[in-house]
Design a protein that fits this description.
heterotrimer, A mainly alpha (about 300), B mainly alpha (about 290), C alpha/beta (about 200), A: about 300 residues, mainly alpha, B: mainly alpha, two-stranded antiparallel ribbon, 11 helices, 2 strands
């Protein structure tokens, strides 16, 4: 009950930021909320299904580039057109990568997802016309019905709505039969198979759902910043979001969201304090693994 | 493509594959025996290359760099194993990935703090600074020949150690059944430390040998790490033979990809991996 | 191998006349073959009732249901009752005693409503009391289903089985009713004979 009140209060606080009109905070908190969706979607795989995927950045980047491409090359600005296309692109990529990667179990899966992410990185870094490592501007950002998403306030509210919807959807999904199967797979996959569940199919479905949500994050990010670059594909991003999940507490949904908020602040203020703030993040990851394996959510529960 | 050009590409691919083998063999053995997936393995390659640059710039000799640098890196491996990796035995994959990912971030910052962000060249040793003619139109740099030969010698020495010594026997036993080794009362702690340190030294050696060929730059470790993963996936985890096959395959496909499919060369290696996954999901030697 | 987890190198497995040699475990399960393992193989992090729900839910046409909450299935309750773990329903499986985990394991198999049960040494590692509880449970189960069990505890086998097959060194030595087996000289020699001076 207390947790629920805190969650609602948190969501309302985030909503309130939207009325501030402060350009810095709108972008900063917008980015943090995208991080929340990103981490929650990965938690579906890591925390609930027991799949440690490093491919999450690939779907993020792919959808972001798709939006840039649709806007710059085809002049598409209506999100009713671009959003489904970008999500479908991310889902299709997740289907192919997931299908291949899930042929390999356990630690192979981790390596294969990382390798495919790196492939996307090189492809988008090297491909002619995509601006190389500088990336691209999204010339025309999504707009429709008089809503212009290049306005930070509009984009911010869109992200807030997306966050709330994704959280509720995932929560619902985890309470449905599908979610129970995922938890069973994490707990004991062999037993699930002998109970009659074709487990690979469920894992692949979870992978595609998570990948599509990662694509949504890429879409929102490109909308908020009006800018995409290959660094979004880098395995650093995949590693960071994995860390966010652990930092917040895997398998709790709200935990990873909390982790994402916290990490956004650490990154921002770390950059100001020291030039070597990456070492700070590195030390933080190691400390979390060694001393806080159940994450912030674990702390809250105790 | 003329025959001599083709031959040159094959030689380059093999040489690149052999270097990759030095890195991947350590990675696959550490996973096979210690059960830890080490993302920081690429950092050892990177640090090796930077050490080679730094020492060679001061002594004017790459040989000196190797002789000083390899023991230093082996020592670093020991320290890392004791301080960090040892805490990961029996932890789940997620913890392993994240802790070693944290190490990567730390090592990258260390490199930035010590050597800065610039790209550095390393001179080829003067004795080897000539080219060997290959057919009428092509020539192969002697240093590449030397690298390939050196890697083959190291690989052969590794084979001898693994097949003929007590240490090697334990490593083989550990790779096939880690629990059994423990049950037999072998000092696993020592075995793990030595093996990890050896893997570190091999990766660093590969970085040192590669330094004159690729230049030394930030982030060079991560590219090699991902390629090593591809090698291990293709070859099968814990298998030295698989790593050897996989490394040659990756070296050749990367080299030929660059010639035949410029622009998409980087995807060729991953296409090969995907094909292996489709046909033999447990790797060529699995 | 019968339940599809190991690949057959030779020979065929038939189920009601159909060749199922290369069927994966999940498919066999949906055809009505339930199996339990030699060591307790449960979902340690889930409670007993959650384990049963998962087992019973596997009989639904599909579990690719994303938005309607998982219903409590009557079969799960029955299985929980049958294996005698009603009182422990909210306990995590990992916290049960070993004997209770075996009960849960058999209960989970029952919840999948199998017509054929494959039980691998259901009494292995159990104390006397726990074993007799399982034997009682198995006798109940065997009334209306086919049960194939591999077991070393001969008293238990004799009290449950209709047909006993004695294997020595991988070959069939004798097959028959418990009485016939008890009387068989070949079996006496192979197993019981060693005990005699």
């Amino acid at each position: 009950m207390i947790a629920r009140i805190l969650l609602v209060a948190g969501a309302l606080a985030l909503l309130a930021v939207g009325f501030s009109g402060d350009r810095f905070w709108l972008q900063f908190m917008g980015k943090a909320m995208i991080g929340c969706i990103f981490a929650m979607s990965l938690d579906l795989l890591v925390g609930y299904t027991g799949l440690v995927s490093l491919a999450h950045a690939a779907f993020f980047g792919l959808a972001a580039y798709l939006l840039a491409g649709l806007s710059n090359a085809a002049g598409f600005v209506n999100p009713l057109a671009t959003l489904p296309i970008c999500l479908a692109g991310a889902a299709a990529a997740a289907l192919v990568i997931g299908w291949l990667s899930l042929r390999a179990a356990g630690v192979y899966f981790i390596m294969v997802t990382l390798a495919f992410t790196q492939m996307f990185y090189y492809l988008f870094n090297d491909a002619p016309g995509l601006g190389g490592s500088d990336g691209l501007y999204v010339q025309e950002r999504p707009r429709f019905l008089g809503l212009d998403f290049s306005e930070r306030t509009t984009a911010y509210f869109a992200i807030w709505i997306a966050l709330v919807i994704v959280y509720l959807l995932l929560l619902r999904m985890l309470r449905a039969p599908f979610g129970h199967v995922l938890v069973g797979i994490r707990a004991n996959e062999q037993r699930m198979r002998s109970l009659g569940y074709p487990t690979r199919r469920y894992k692949l479905t979870a992978f595609v759902i998570a990948g599509t949500l990662a694509g949504l994050c890429g879409y929102l990010d490109a909308t908020l910043y009006g800018f995409v670059n290959p660094a979004q594909f880098s395995w650093r991003q995949s590693g960071l979001v994995l860390m966010t999940v652990l930092l917040g507490g895997k398998g709790t949904l709200y935990g990873p969201a909390l982790g994402a908020l916290l990490l956004t602040f650490v990154e921002h203020y770390g950059e100001r304090v020291t030039e070597h703030w990456n070492a700070l993040i590195g030390a933080l990851v190691i400390a979390v693994v060694l001393f806080l394996p159940r994450g912030l959510a674990g702390l809250l529960r105790d | 493509m003329s025959f001599s050009l083709f031959a040159l590409q094959v030689l380059n691919g093999v040489e690149q594959g052999l270097l990759l083998f030095l890195v991947a063999s350590g990675l696959t053995l550490v996973f096979g025996v210690l059960g830890v997936l080490n993302f920081a393995h690429g950092s050892f390659y990177m640090l090796g290359a930077y050490l080679a640059y730094w020492i060679a710039a001061r002594t004017g000799s790459l040989l000196a760099a190797v002789l000083i640098g390899v023991p230093v890196m082996a020592l670093l491996g020991l320290v890392v194993e004791r301080l960090a990796i040892a805490r990961l035995y029996k932890r789940d994959h997620l913890s392993q990935v994240l802790l070693t990912y944290g190490l990567v971030l730390l090592f990258n910052e260390l490199q930035r703090a010590l050597f800065g962000n610039d790209v550095h060249g390393v001179d080829t040793p003067t004795v080897l600074a000539f080219r060997i003619p290959l057919g009428s139109a092509q020539e192969w740099p002697a240093y590449r020949v030397f690298t390939a030969v050196a890697c083959i010698l190291v690989a052969a020495a590794m084979r001898q150690v693994i097949l003929r010594t007590r240490f090697g026997m334990r490593v083989r036993a550990g790779a096939s059944n880690a629990e059994m080794v423990e049950a037999l009362g072998i000092d696993v702690r020592k075995l793990f430390s030595v093996l990890f340190s050896a893997g570190t030294a091999l990766a660093a050696l590969a970085g040192m040998l590669a330094a004159p060929l690729t230049t030394v730059y930030p982030g060079m470790g991560e590219g090699v790490l991902v390629l090593s993963f591809v090698v291990v996936v293709i070859g099968g985890i814990g298998s030295i033979k698989g790593a050897f096959l996989g490394a040659l395959l990756v070296g050749l496909s990367d080299t030929f990809g660059k010639v035949l499919l410029p622009g998409f060369s980087s995807a060729v290696v991953y296409a090969v991996m995907a094909a292996v996954l489709l046909l033999r999901p447990r790797g060529l030697a699995g | 191998m019968l339940s599809g987890e190991l690949r057959a190198t030779a020979g065929r497995v038939r189920l009601r006349g159909a060749d199922v040699t290369h069927f994966p475990p999940d498919r066999l399960s949906r055809m009505g073959v339930g199996r339990s393992y030699q060591t307790a193989n449960v979902f340690p992090e889930l409670t007993c009732e959650e384990c049963m729900w998962l087992a019973a839910q596997s009989r639904a046409h599909t579990s690719m249901i994303f938005f309607s909450p998982a219903a409590r299935i009557a079969g799960a309750e029955r299985a929980l009752q049958a294996c005698g773990l009603m009182a422990r329903r909210s306990t995590r499986a990992g916290e049960l005693s070993y004997g209770e985990q075996r009960q849960l394991e058999i209960g989970m198999v029952l919840a999948t409503e199998p017509s054929l049960l494959l039980l691998d040494e259901p009494l292995a590692g159990l104390g006397h009391d726990e074993a007799s509880r399982i034997v009682a449970l198995l006798r109940e189960v065997a009334r209306d289903r086919t049960l194939v069990l591999v077991e070393h505890d001969m008293d238990a086998v004799f009290s449950i089985a209709d047909t006993v097959t004695v294997l020595v060194g991988g070959r069939v030595l004798e097959r028959g009713s418990p009485e016939q087996i008890r009387a068989s000289p070949a079996v006496r020699e192979a197993y019981l004979g060693t005990e005699q001076p």
